[in-house]
Each structure stands twice: as C-alpha cells, then as structure tokens.
Design goal:
By secondary structure, the chain is an alpha/beta fold. Helices cover about 35% and strands about 15% of the residues. The protein has eleven helices and 13 strands. It has helices spanning about 35-50, 75-85, 100-115, 130-135, 145-160, 235-240, 265-270, 290-300, 315-330, 345, 355-365, and strands spanning about 5-10, 50-55, 90-95, 120-125, 170, 175-180, 190, 195, 210-215, 225-230, 250-255, 285, 305-310. It has an eight-stranded parallel barrel, surrounded by seven helices. The protein has a two-stranded antiparallel ribbon with strand order 5-6. A two-stranded antiparallel ribbon has the order 7-8. α7 (about 265-270) links the parallel β11 (about 250-255) and β12. The relative contact order is 0.17.
C-alpha cells in the first residue's frame, strides 16, 4: 500500500479567483465579510479533507472600483477560522514589504497557539505604490528591494519565534516566577532598512516554527518550508519544482470545473463579459472533475502538494468536495489531516530545534 503523496491547499479569499466571481456567488454581496460566511467556507474545506486553507490579503481593497470590494485582515480571519475548525491547516497571506516584522511574528505566533499548531504563513509582497502611502512608508519599487524586504521579514520572524526557548515559561509558584529570563534571548537583527532586538512578546509557537510558504525567487530556500511554484503547463511546473531545494514544493493551479448547471467553459465566458481573468503564469484547468483528478495525479509525480484557486468558491468548492477529493482519496493520493496533529506533522516536516537552546548544548559539549 503506497503512502499518500499529495497535499491539497485551497485559497478561500473573497468569492473566488476570478475578479467577477461575486456575480455567480450563492450569497448576496453584503454577506461576504460576515463571520458566518468565513466559517461556512472553511468548514466545507475541512470536511472535504483539504490539508490547508490560505487567505489572501493586502492593505488595499481587492477588485475593481465598479465591483463590491472589501476584505477583513487575513490574520484576523485565520484566528476566527482556527477557533471554529479542528484539523485543517490555516495559512494567512502576510505581506512583509511595509509591515513591521516584529508585529507579524507576534500575530503569527499567536495564531499558532490559537490553532494548537495548525498555522502557516504565505509570504508575499506588496507591489502597488498606493500601499506605501497607506502604510506611510517609503515606496519599495524594484524587484531586488522587494525580495530584500521579504528575506529580512522572514529572517526576523523566524529568529523571534526562537527568542523564547520551549521551556522559558516555568510558572513557579515557589519562586513567584512566570518566566526563566535565562531562556529568553535578544535576536539583534540589523538589516538594510531596520533593526530588531527582541525578544518576542509571545511564547514560542507550538510548532516551534510556523510552516512558511512562499516563492523561491523571493525568499531563500533555507527560509522556506514550502516553495510555491508556477508554470502554464505540466512541463513548466515540473521544471520549476525541481529547482527550489525546499523541504516541500506546492504547485499553483487555477481551476474552473463543470457543474450540474453549466460547463466550466460557459462559466468562464459568463464572467469574462464583466472582467478578465488575468493570466498570472499559473497552470489553469477548465473542464471536468475527472480531468482535474488526472492532472493532479500527474502533478503528484513532481510536487508534494497543490494550492488550488477556484474560479467561484460557491460553485467549484462543492465539486471539489464531492468529486475531486474523494476520487484522489480512492486512488490513495491524498489523506485528510488527523485530529491533534500539527501542520508540520501533516506535511511530514520535523519540529525544528530552538537555535539558542541548540547553541547552548553545543557550547557545553565543546567545553567538555
């Protein structure tokens, strides 16, 4: 019996991957930002057996001005979802171009505590100049500068997650001490645009380090747990997947599926009358569920997982739940996360040792 080899993630921001997806949604536009809607979509993904959900974000409203637009912060939504789910991993998008890494680290560590070790982080960048004005920060324009901010942001967050050793919280009634100060550490980071001393204000996350997902051309492989790779066809994805050198590689795939009411092609055509589905260089499947199952089976030979971007959540997510994931499970290509397991465990990633504790042990051994 072969072990499952493919992990499935799904992007749940808004009403779907298409900018006009709201026009085919099963709810009225004013319901999009309600807690009920957020919990409902997350529950469908968890019950279907997805490994992970991701939630896109940005300081600027998504979509075009003529469409209903709005978004609640991804970390806030992720925290709500964490409290209303029990097995699925949750990875909000957090853009590090203008955000403060210290606060990002604290928010994500808190999310890992809330979810009991099911949290991840999708590292992305903010390329729109209006975002700099919204943050009140100097504009970051060129690709090298954007990549620099991403690298530094992840480096700081990872260091801060280690700034508390696992046993730093002692809760000693006898000595009236909550913390062992010797097990808290300054990280003393100095980058090109800022410095962070630390330590963190949140204890080390249950996973030690959250699962970090991102593009390998923006964040060094050593800082990523999961590389997100793109390609317009299977061969391009296979080539991209061979390069990162990260523990896990996920392919980005946009999907529009046939439904009982309309074919995938007809649904796309209907939405294209209102707005274009931008080509982001990703593999795109428009067609039947069984064809997607076959495509994912082919991808499983090259990648460890796939992040799906459904055209319209209310139409495609039920088809994924009813036809795609059961078929993949029957072929033993996927398995649903088990209760009580961390996201790292589900992905087959080890819990990393604390760098400061490991350094202290190494120093003691050298002194002997």
């Amino acid at each position: 019996m072969s072990e499952p080899v493919l992990h499935l993630a799904v992007e749940l921001d808004g009403d779907g991957a298409h900018p006009a997806a709201w026009r085919r949604a099963a709810h009225s536009p004013d319901q999009l930002l309600t807690p009920r809607r957020v919990a409902q979509v997350a529950a469908i993904a968890e019950n279907a057996g997805f490994t992970l959900i991701t939630l896109d974000d940005g300081v600027l409203p998504p979509g075009a001005a003529r469409d209903p637009v709005g978004r609640i912060g991804a970390v806030e939504r992720a925290a709500f979802v964490a409290a209303s789910t029990s097995t699925i991993g949750i990875a909000p998008v957090v853009l590090v171009t203008y955000t403060e890494p210290f606060h990002v680290s604290s928010q994500l560590a808190s999310l890992d505590h809330i979810s009991a070790g099911r949290a991840g982080w999708v590292v992305t960048e903010e390329e729109r100049p209006e975002a700099a004005r919204a943050w009140g920060r100097p504009l970051v324009v060129d690709a090298d500068a954007l990549a620099r901010e991403s690298r530094a942001g992840v480096e700081v967050a990872r260091a801060l997650w280690d700034s508390w050793e696992d046993d730093a919280v002692i809760r000693s009634v006898a000595t009236s001490r909550y913390l062992d100060r010797e097990r808290l550490h300054y990280i003393d980071f100095t980058g090109e645009t800022y410095a962070v001393k630390g330590p963190a204000i949140v204890p080390r996350p249950p996973q030690g380090q959250l699962v970090v997902l991102g593009r390998p051309d923006r964040v060094p492989a050593a800082q990523l747990d999961v590389a997100l790779v793109e390609g317009r066809d299977l061969a391009s994805v296979a080539t991209a997947a061979a390069a990162p050198g990260t523990p896990r590689v996920f392919a980005e795939v946009e999907v529009a599926l046939d439904t009982p009411e309309a074919t995938a092609a007809d649904r796309v055509t209907d939405l294209e009358r209102h707005a274009a589905w931008s080509d982001r260089g990703r593999l795109r499947h428009i067609g039947a569920a069984d064809q997607l199952v076959a495509l994912l089976g082919e991808l499983s030979r090259h990648v460890d997982g796939v992040r799906l971007h459904p055209l319209v959540l209310d139409e495609d997510l039920p088809v994924l739940s009813r036809l795609v994931l059961p078929a993949l499970s029957e072929r033993r290509l996927v398995a649903r996360p088990l209760p009580g397991t961390s996201l790292r465990s589900t992905l087959g990633l080890e819990r990393p040792a604390n760098r400061f504790a490991a350094a202290a042990v190494a120093a003691q051994e050298d002194a002997r």
